[in-house]
Amino acid sequence: MAEEAIPGSVILFFCPLPVRFVAASGWSGQKSHSTASLIRASQAAQISCAGTGQASALDNCMQERESRPTSAPDAIVIGGGLGGLLSAAQLLQRNKRVIVLERLPHCGGRFTAKTFQGVQVSTGAVHMVPFGSSGVLAGMLRRLRVPHRFFDADVFGSFHVHGQQYRARGLLGVFKFLGPRQFFWFTRVGYLMFFRPLPARESHLPFDLWLQRHIDVKRNPQLVAFFERISRFALSLELSQVSAAEVVRTTKNMLRYGAPAIVDGGCAALTGQLERHISQQGGEIRLSCEVLQILQDEGHVTGVRVRDKLSGKEEVLVAPLVVSDIGPRATNALLDNRKITQAEVLKSKAAKEEEADLALHEAVGLKVHVLSDVSLIPHKGIMYCLDTQRIAGIVQPTNSDPRLAPPGKHLIISHQVIQSNNVEEERALALADLRRLFGEAFDKHCQVLTMGTYRGEWPVNRLAQGEDVLPVTSTPGLYLVGDAVKPSGYLMVEGVAQSVNQFLDLLDLVDQEQGAVRSKTFSARTHRSRNVTSPPSRLNAIRWLWKAPGNSGKI
Ligand SMILES: Cc1cc2nc3c(=O)[nH]c(=O)nc-3n(C[C@H](O)[C@H](O)[C@H](O)COP(=O)(O)OP(=O)(O)OC[C@H]3O[C@@H](n4cnc5c(N)ncnc54)[C@H](O)[C@@H]3O)c2cc1C
């Protein structure tokens, strides 16, 4: 879907340099998104305001906020993707008046689906949540009291290798296809990743080079493929594109939180519940409403200029707080009242890559939806494909929720990284892989529903894992959430949910500061991180040895 999913007429935005945003971790993934670092970034932004007279603009805005009519919103959320919807729900819980503006005729962004031939064909995510019922997203939904149900995987995964599928209930199950020698090196790598602190000189290394330092990659081909395919499926990155530190942090979190899960009803059911929740709590969602510009006065955000795409009418909406779920590039462009098309983003990407240090690196992918008469994957988790040319992994979400496809049929979704600019070739290789994996059954029982590429302004991740920015911007009152603001170690929608937690911590800090300035009692030490929580105990990871932890045996 993806490129096809963005209506040709929709105008996208582009800015060559993310100058207004604070890079969170850079390539090394060294700086953590702790509250302390957020506070520092927030203070830096405030300091830069003070230097340009923006502090007084903030005061003006505060006074304006107190004297505004009751119908005016306290906050405007740009984009009704998962990040935007979660932010809106959180702001409503804090008794703020919120408007969500979504340019498409529906909410959900890359985490929803369209019904096609009775199948829930997703606009992005494969109906899967990385850390399942114990994850950050699940925790946030519980706290918001948004109805949802996640079916955790019942396996660590299965692995298609040597022409057959090996099922691994827990981590030790990889012995079946690695054999004793490669399994020995698997445990060695596990020790280096999880028990020994990663030396500073190694954390910056791309993971493929890190692996080369510790194992003989030629003699351990399946072990290398194991890491490569998991990285391609989970991060949409090659091992050369992600640092050792980021792989270690992300893997630790994956093991500590728990098994991935399929969402009951699929992505659309979850974002649909969030939309209902927002409406019930008095929030307003405007669909087909495109933000054309983010407005500022003396450096402080004051609102947005929008266009109703159905009537063509333009309007200015005023609010002291604007939350952007559309990524740094598009947000930056809106600040400058600029826009370009998806085609221009893709065209300019090659040129930008030459300025590697300044470019925003997104994670790109290709996804195939297949409808099958027969079950091809016998579990609720991911089948990693170690003997394919392109496909990294496949899920069969109908094993968890049969309603995602017509009765008696199965939905199968494959995912791969796009490795060249030749999309036709990438598609052909995907089909060749599906035939290789399932043999005659593929031609006899399967129908390809869609093949979609995800890149440009509709990528798998707006910023590659480990290269994300912070939620704070140098424009007071303007914050970022979403998949370009993932904290280190949090992938996909877990990163999106955690980006919202980071934003809330900043907001609480600003509220606390403003309250304290009024009463003259502020001390930085009084701030406590309330929303971003630490991952569960590392002992949780031990549960993975024999079987996948989670609710799979219980529901
Ligand atoms: C192929 C693929 C597979 C994936 N698989 C998984 C998975 O299995 N599990 C998982 O957890 N994650 C997965 N992801 C990632 C996940 O889909 C994203 O991380 C998540 O949906 C991003 O949400 P978001 O709110 O940050 O952004 P988006 O979903 O992109 O939301 C942004 C919204 O803003 C709107 N918008 C943009 N510009 C404007 C404007 N000017 N005015 C108004 N509205 C605007 C857009 O229309 C969009 O609705 C996958 C993604 C892809 C593409």
Automatic annotation (TrEMBL):
InterPro entries recorded: Amino_oxidase (IPR002937), FAD/NAD-bd_sf (IPR036188)
Single GO molecular function: oxidoreductase activity
Ranges of residues in domain Amine oxidase: 82-499
Pfam family for this entry, one: Amino_oxidase
Superkingdom of this protein's organism: Bacteria
Protein name according to UniProt: NAD(P)/FAD-dependent oxidoreductase
